[in-house]
TrEMBL record:
This is C-type lectin domain-containing protein. Residues 16-86 form the C-type lectin domain. It comes from Steinernema glaseri. InterPro entries: C-type_lectin-like, C-type_lectin-like/link_sf, CTDL_fold. The lineage of its organism: Eukaryota, Metazoa, Ecdysozoa, Nematoda, Chromadorea. Signal peptide: none annotated. Coiled coil: none annotated.
Length: 96
């Protein structure tokens, strides 16, 4: 499983999903996990406070990659979006 690499610029218009494991601090990496259940190893939160601290409790999040604003954002779990849950490169060189 290749998780999000901050230097990966080969994807555009993509959303990667994750979920909150508890109702704890949204900004702590240890509170989030990938859709496959593994722990988060990177976060880059959206600087807009309304996207980091929603008014309603949210247990899901995404990194939306477009318009040069590739940042983690909390969202409702009922939002329908296309998700990349897992990516395995065909060429091992692509995972660097």
């Amino acid at each position: 499983m290749n998780h999000w690499n901050a230097e990966n610029t080969s994807w555009s218009r993509l959303i990667i999903g994750m979920r909150l494991t508890s109702l704890g601090n949204h900004n702590r990496t240890s509170c989030w996990q990938w859709a496959d259940g593994t722990a988060m190893d990177f976060t880059d939160w959206n600087p807009d406070p309304s996207r980091r601290y929603p008014t309603t409790p949210s247990k899901c999040g995404v990194v939306a990659m477009w318009k040069d604003d590739d940042r983690w954002t909390v969202t409702t779990c009922s939002m329908d979006v296309p998700l990349l849950c897992k990516y395995t490169p065909l060429n091992p060189e692509d995972s660097r």
